[in-house]
Amino acid sequence: MESTKTEILFWKVFHNKYLFSIILKQIHENEWVNYDYFGYHVDNRKRFKDITSMYWMIEEGQFELLKYKIKSKEEYIEIDRKGMEELFSIGNQSIVKELLSQLFNSNKRNETIKIIYEMLPTLPIITSNTLHFKNTNKIFELLFSSSSSSSSSSSSSSSSSSSSSSSSSSLSSSSSSSSSATPSSTSSSLSYSFEIYSPLLECAIKLLEANNLSNLIKSPNLFISQDFKNRSFTFTNSNTIKKIEEKLEIILSNPILYNSDYSNLNINVTIYGIDGGMKLITRNENFGLFMILTINNPIIQNKLIDLNYHQLNLTTQFKDKINEILLNHNRSIRVKELHKYLLNLNLTTTTKTTTINLYESIYMDHLIYYSRYGEIIPTLKNENNLIDFIKVSIATFNVKALKTISEFDRNLIKSKFPKLHYKETSIPISIPREYKSKEEMVEFINFYTTNYDCFVCFHFIQDRIIQDYILKHLPSISASSSSSSTSTSTSTSTSTSTSIEIEYKELIDSIKNKEFLNFFPNTWNEIIRKITAYSFLSIEIKSQLDIDWIYENHEKEFLKRSIKSFKGIEIFNFQSFQLLNYASKLFSSLPPTNYLYYNNDDDSLILSRPILYNYPFKKSIRECDIEQMKHLYSTKDDNFFITPFDMSTRLYEPFFSCKSNEQIINFIQYLHDNQFKFCRPSLVKKVIKSIPSTLEKEQSLKLKINFHNLDDEAKQIFSKAIEKLSIHLIKLMVENDFFPIQEIAPSLLDQFKEPIYSPSSKLAKLYSIPFENGEKAKNLIELFLQLYDRDINENQGLKSKDFNIVINYLFKVLLSVKGISIQVVKNIYNQISSRSFIKIDHSLYHVVFYLSIRSQLLARYIMSLPFIYSIFTDDEEAFPQYYASSNYGHPGYDIKKYLNLQVFSFDFIFGKDTSFDAILEKLVDTLSYKPIKDDDTLLSTEDDYLSETINSNLHYFLDIRREDLFLKHLDYIQQQFLNNRFLIIDAFPWKSRNQYPVDQQSFSNCNHCENLNIQPVFMGRIFLYSKFLIQSASKVLSDYGFKKFLSLSSYQTFMESILNVNFQELDKQTTETLLKNAEFIDHIFKIHYKPIDNDSNNPGTSNSNSNSNSNSNSNSNSDNNSDNNNSNKNANNSNSADLNEYWNRIIYKNIKNISVSMFIRFQHLFIGNNCLKPINDKDLELLFGQYCFDIDLRNLIVNSIPSSNYFKVTNSMISIAVQSNKIDYLKYLYKNGEINDNKNSDDSQPSLLRHLKNELSESLEYNCYFDWLN
């Protein structure tokens, strides 16, 4: 029943126009977001209907708003290239996919497709220069991976909407294909929306991952040129064989993408990638042959040979022999035989031009052959080739190949190369370097180390590879398999540890050379895993087993190198003092020269005393481990440490983390009872400060600390506790009879001297502290008030002065809390005021913060004043330009002179009867207008004070969206022109393009303007708006408010501002607002605008008087009438010139503001018998460039202005369209008969159709368009 009444009441209010208008006004004027004061400006809120830019919505993160406007069929969205690029730059790819999907399934589909279609050919350039993705592939992935199979109905609706739009008629066939096709769930939405031509497909092959490329080529809308077929395999040329093979396999799956025969074909191949990187195949010559020999997949190799792809760019004289080998040999060995033949050919041929090698040297070709087939060609076997063969076999862990080397050859290598070979030649990237299976690796290591002496020359590189495999790769495999396991039981962990120990032992046992074996520890330990991690900082010692393992393996090269190379301070992190003592005794048995030797005195050694005890000491404190501290205190005397212990070193965890309050209390009490033994003062302070604020009163009472024994450290803790608002520490110290308020109070006098505003930064900035500190500040003030009351009762207020300092300090802290409520401030203020001996300070600091707490809008007003040069602070001595007396050091505008602290009291600002408007009115009057009357020197010291200040006020009212105050102050300005007794009239500038007459200019309201209450210009003076005021007004004011804004000074203010030489370029929204008011502005120019005749002999008289005086010698009525007519004609000509100048400024000053869509919306202003600004071809060229390829605009101009030649189809236009990829526009012209084979008017030029064919043919894409171009 209640809900029914509420609904009835809602509809009554909704249908009541008066109530509804009031509600809407409140919604529009009130701020619904709690901004900081600097967040209030005209652009922080836009009217819903004015938000049309997709670019703006994405840039501002208004994704939900964009989604709504996309779904709505009635909402207009400006979708352009800039907005689409911004869409692709969104970091969250799921949002990009969602927005793209919604766009494709909305009535904005055609616009979206059109923009993206134009972007795609240059997408690699866009993404590398503009967008934030790491690589272009991600863009393609977003475009081509979203499914289009959501529903057949959506495709059908998209198709119908496509066919209804003339601007996308060229895409209608694609849409129809999309609706008729039944794509699979993996098909790309774009691949079924676009006609995919060769340039796009080329980019896709180069940039897409294989799975997305596979989806794309399934599209029914592929249009493939012959040139693309010639080159399709070359687009796969990458920097890895795996990627080349993946993409070759995809292309080979679709026969329309390649030729059936590549015999005797020569093309120019791009060697460099989009990113400038070199590809794997680096030469044009013999490209096809090189590709076949480079890849490893025999199936793909044979398919390419079947297509005669080896003959692509084949330049060698041995073509016939190559063809014979490939034809006569079995498919399984023909590539091998070809490779073998080429190696023999390269060695036996003396002429360099006849050699065929993949790389710059025959040597590299040999290495590839060895790695692929694991054998040496008998006819080419020699000492060098044998070394290369061994090198490749070892580098690829090919034990089978190594075993083919005879014992004689191994001994030969041993005798010839008995030393390390440091200049190892690199192995080609086309040779795979992956580890083999564990069994194969065990076999390889066994054979390599058994013949270790034969392979001395390879030890430098290969030893490290095997070491990395055993010590790094094996643990990483174990770790990954462990993390992938779903079980978290102890038994699983133990099983994993046992498994790696077994595998490690198996690998170590396979090493048959003692020298090489000496590098590795005897058994596995998790310490190995930590050391081999490149970022390890220390070795954690958890048990005696770890210490024993280090001791047993200390002579192993791996451990020795690792520990000696460690650069940190604490290499061993012993988990307890017991482990440390155990290690000390064990390592002390080593010789003094040993790197692990423990020395009690030398703290430069790894195991020196201060360093070793550092970690367990910190750990004991963090974990509140009393037992460990007992062990330390019982085993070491006071003189144990050479230097006092320093806790300034890195702490990995905060103090006392995850410990109960009871544990913390007991631990700190234990440290205190032992005089904080081995702790430096800095550590004592850190321990005390780390006491958690969650301690209950009963718990804190258990903690008994004699702070007097800590002396200065305790005072510093107390002072810091006040600054950090740590009430629990203050309570703890007070409960332990430590309250040094007299000692610390003076230091607080220097606090909070931070300026509210710094002129050097050019940005007003209020000081603030986080909101969560508000409750802390409140509670701490109340605590000190309680302590003050106790002092009054016990000591008759001896410490009142100190309490006054501390409480005032804390009250200023409270005022600076960001978002503190008025109620909290009032409550604390009243509590403090109730104490007789405590007086709350009242300074500029207080007033500014009172105002900001009352409303951030009040702070915004103060901080936006243009002539605030002073620094807001209570510290007069810190800034010499200010003095305690009234003689201010600053010669210009000084807020301290004008902001009366007695007027802006606490009661006035927070009083119940004081409204926001009353405070604001008082501020405006005090800080803007009264200084003129009270400070005679102000206008001479601050240039343009009045103009800038009033403009600043007007901007402020717009920023806070108070149209009523804005219009009120416009009326106030107008009134000053009529009140010559007020000083303000003399301060208004004479800045205008023309000298207005001194006499009052007459003005009569016409029917069109009578509701605006327009006043005449007085004394020849007008008020000029600032550069940006027109823009701000257009974004905030209502239609009536904007007209009132235009009408100031009989419209002359607006006219002079916009026609002024310092005119600021308008933004898009302001341009649109002015176009909406075009009829009204045209009325102003024609009826009310009074241009002044600068050539007049008497600039102080009106035009009419000047004209009549200039003809005073004539007595003829006809002559007078003639002169008056000429005068009116001249005035009209002047009006017309100014009106043209106005149109030029709002339209042509920044042509980017007038988009095609905006021009079409306001076409009535430019086209038609009654239009205000007739458009011509020159205007169109200024707005849209020499050529425009928008179909909707073309139809509008051609149909509305038959005489226009702007869209005339010419050969040069066709050339530019082809270069700009405007194929959809050309297709539209062709289908509508605009491009035909009729004879050209210029006999020397071909017909339009012939020229189009020529252009397309030259672009290598002629065959792509054969289906629509006959």
List the helices and strands and how they pair.
Blueprint: H1 2-15, H2 17-29, H3 54-59, H4 63-71, H5 81-88, H6 93-104, H7 109-119, H8 123-129, H9 136-145, H10 152-164, H11 172-180, E1 196-197, H12 198-207, H13 210-216, E2 222-223, H14 226-231, H15 241-252, H16 287-294, H17 298-306, H18 319-328, H19 334-348, H20 362-373, H21 383-395, H22 399-403, H23 407-416, H24 438-450, H25 459-484, H26 490-509, H27 514-517, H28 526-532, E3 539-541, H29 544-552, H30 557-564, E4 572-574, H31 577-587, H32 609-622, H33 626-635, H34 661-673, H35 681-689, H36 697-702, H37 712-723, H38 727-735, H39 741-748, E5 757-758, E6 763-764, H40 773-795, H41 800-815, H42 822-833, H43 844-854, H44 856-863, H45 895-898, H46 906-910, H47 916-934, H48 938-941, H49 945-959, H50 963-978, H51 984-987, H52 1029-1036, H53 1039-1046, H54 1052-1059, H55 1068-1076, H56 1078-1088, H57 1103-1110, H58 1117-1148, H59 1156-1161, H60 1163-1166, H61 1177-1184, H62 1191-1200, H63 1211-1219, H64 1223-1231, H65 1248-1258
Helix pairs in contact: 4-6, 9-13, 10-11, 18-19, 19-20, 20-21, 25-26, 29-31, 35-37, 37-38, 37-39, 39-41, 40-41, 40-42, 41-42, 43-44, 47-49, 49-50, 49-52, 52-55, 57-58, 63-65
Description:
About 13% of the residues have low confidence. By secondary structure, this protein is mostly helical. The strands form 3 sheets. A two-stranded parallel ribbon has the order 1-2. It has 65 helices and 6 strands. 32% of the residues are buried.
